[in-house]
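User: Um, what's this?
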Amino acid sequence: MNQREANAVARELEEQVFDRDRYAYDIDVESVNSTPDYTTAIREIVVSGIPHYTTDGFESVEEYLLEVSSDNA
């Protein structure tokens, strides 16, 4: 996925109604190499969020972030 595709997904989601409300989305696409710089922020977002849709890849990242968090506790 690239940033243009992510923006298209955000626009689609913003048109949908969830529990009688609409939401704004900010989806950023980062390279794999930049991920370590954002681990804390990504962990906070992923762990505190309520996913409307998940994939095996997302669940793998979520598990990894939880493991890294517990290793640093």
